[in-house]
Amino acid sequence: MKSMTGYGEASQHVGPTKVSVQVRSLNHRHLDLQLRVPREYMSLEEDIRKAIREKISRGRIDLFINRQPGRGLAHKLEMDEPLLGQYLASVKQAKKKFQLAGEVGVSLLASVPDLFRVREVEVDAAQERKAIFTALTAALKKLEQSREREGRQLKADMQAQIDQLKRISLELETRAAELGIRLQKPSVPGRNGESGARSDMTELSNTVLKGDINEELVRLKSHVASLAQVLREREPVGKKIDFMLQEVNRELNTISSKVPQLAVVQLVLDGKERVEKIREQTQNIE
After folding, report:
1. Which SS3 state, helix, strand or coil, does residue 13 take?
2. Residue 140: which of 68, 67, 59 has the closest Cα?
3. 133 half-sphere exposure, CB direction, 13 A CA radius
4. Which of 63, 167, 204, 263 has its CA 20 to 30 A from that of 274?
5. Half-sphere exposure (Cβ direction) of 128: Cα atoms closer than 13 Å
6. What's the predicted TM-score (pTM) here?
7. How confident is the model at residue 249 (pLDDT cuts 50, 70, 90)?
8. What phi and psi, each to the nearest 5 degrees, are found at residue 167?
9. DSSP 44
10. What would the pLDDT profile of 60-94 be if each residue is shown by its tens digit?
């Protein structure tokens, strides 16, 4: 069992460039992918989504990829040597033709327009792609470990509530048996208690006439046992548990409507409270 909340991060280096991947998961009914990637990696978005879907089936996934070039290495300064050669040749020709004095120095470089230009360093696409998916795989593994850790805690809490539902099922069974025995016992009222005893027996008889709850108890215990079994599965179980909780609630409602005795109703209310606590936890698991 895994929680839907977790966090993982990892990084890789490609030469002086550092690629970092951070991935966070939150509760969501379906799989909702939100990616934030540098423009250099926009063409990889679909492959990144596919890699996430292979690992995660439910939850909101926020993924951030950061590309950090080495300081001063993201751009490159280039000099237009052919242009400088033309300037120097023209200056030399002018000196000779017009008999000009003086030497050509470095100061000329600053006066020549468009002699220098700055361009971005080309990205090694293949190497950076490899680095991105290596970091993504590591980050998703850490995310999975985080979700499994929290999942173990949720599982323990849910198991405790299921144990209480088992107890409630047994107590309901006992109450139903006691009710049947009371109806079978002959009434031996005294002179003054005859009418009161007859009234009590009539009320019990009317309760039983609403229907036997044996079938509901059998189904209730079966659903509770199935809940405990599902908790041991490793595949995503959130939707399964949600469906089973609906069935448990259905049986509890039927039992309370068929046997509206105070003790039975109190047990049913306790059971429904346990169901709601499990349902709250279910919102957090995959």
Report:
1. strand
2. 59
3. 13
4. 204
5. 20
6. 0.62
7. very high
8. -60, -45
9. G
10. 999 999 998 766 555 677 788 888 888 888 888 88
CB 83 within 8 A of CB 115: yes
Q: What span, in angstroms and rounded, lies between the C-alpha atoms of 178 and 138? A: 60
Convert the pLDDT of each residue in 3-44 to its tens digit.
889 999 999 998 888 999 999 999 888 899 999 999 889 999
Q: Six-digit token pair at 278? A: 């499990």
Q: Locate 244 and state its tokens.
A: 């089973």
pLDDT value at residue 22? 97
Name the residue type at position 262.
L
In order of their start, the domains of the chain are 6-71+126-146 (3.30.230.10), 77-117 (no CATH), 148-282 (no CATH)
Length of the chain: 286
pLDDT given for residue 192 in this prediction: 52
User: Residues with Cβ < 8 Å from 136, sequence gap 6 or more?
Assistant: 10, 21, 23, 48, 51
Query: pLDDT tens digits for 172-194?
Result: 988 888 776 554 444 445 445 55
CB 217 within 8 Å of CB 256: no
Q: What is the mean pLDDT of residues 142-167?
A: 94
More reliable by pLDDT, 98 or 164: 164
Nearest to 21 by CA among 131, 124, 126: 131
What's the gap between Cα 230 and its chain centre?
19
> At which residue do the structure tokens 């980050």 appear?
139
